[in-house]
Amino acid sequence: MRTAPTLTVMSRVIALLIAASAVLAHAQSSDPLDSPECRSARDELEAALDDPGMGRAERAQRLAIARKNVLGICLGPASAQPQRSGAPERVIAVPAPIISAPPAHPVAPAATAPLPPLAVPRPAVITTCDSAGCWDSEGRRLNHLGPMLVGPRGLCNLQGGIANCP
User: Fold this and answer.
1) Number of C-beta neighbours around residue 140 at 10 A
2) Which of 6, 10, 66, 89 makes an SS bond possible with 48, Cβ 3.0 to 4.6 Å?
3) Any bridge partners for residue 159, and if so which?
C-alpha cells in the first residue's frame, strides 16, 4: 500500500519527465538550412552560377531569382524582401571633434661642429737598421731592447718589415 507522500513524489517526477520531453522535442526541430527545399534552392543557385551558356542579362536575372529563392526558403520570408531603395534614411549629422593641442614650443636644433676626418694611423715601415736600433719611414728611432724594438712611447710590435709602435 502506498502512502500519500509517495504519490506526491511520483507525480512530481512524472511532471518533470513531461517537461523534459517537451524541451527535447523543441530542441530537435529541423534546421531550415538542412531541409530538402533549402538544398534544392542552393543547388539551383549553384547551377545558375556555373551556367556559362546564357547571355549576360539572362544570367543576371536567373541569379537574382535564385538568390531570392535561397533567401526566402533557407533564411525565412523576411530575408527575401527587397531592401528599401526609395528615400534614403535620415542622416544623423555628427559634428567633427575639436582637438586642442598644446602650443608647440619651437626647439632650435643644436648646432654641432662637424667632426674632423678620422685619422687612421698607418704602420711604419722599417727603413734601415744598425747595431743599436732601426729607423722607420716616419723618421723615428726605434732602439733595440734585447730582441725587441722600443719606440718613443713603448714596445713596438714587429711583423715582417712593418713596425706598429704606440
Assistant:
1) 15
2) 66
3) 162
Which residue carries 608647440 as its cell? 104
Q: How confident is the model at residue 25 (pLDDT cuts 50, 70, 90)?
A: low
Taking the complete model, does pTM exceed 0.70, yes or no? no
Give a three-class secondary structure readout of the chain.
CCCHHHHHHHHHHHHHHHHHHHHHHHHCCCCHHHCHHHHHHHHHHHHHHHCCCCCHHHHHHHHHHHHHHHHHHHCCHHHHCCCCCCCCCCCCCCCCCCCCCCCCCCCCCCCCCCCCCCCCCCCEEEEEECCCEEEECCCCEEEEECCEEEECCEECEEECCEEECC
Query: Which conformational region is residue 154 in: left (phi greater than 0), alpha (psi within -120 to 50 degrees), or beta?
Result: left
The cell numbers describing 7, all together, are: 504519490
Closest CA to 163 of 118, 120, 128: 128
Dihedral of alpha carbons 107, 108, 113, 115, sign? positive
> Identity (one letter) of the amino acid at 39?
R
Q: Taking all residues of the chain, what is their mean pLDDT, rounded to a whole number? A: 78
- The residue among 2 and 7 whose pLDDT is bigger is 7
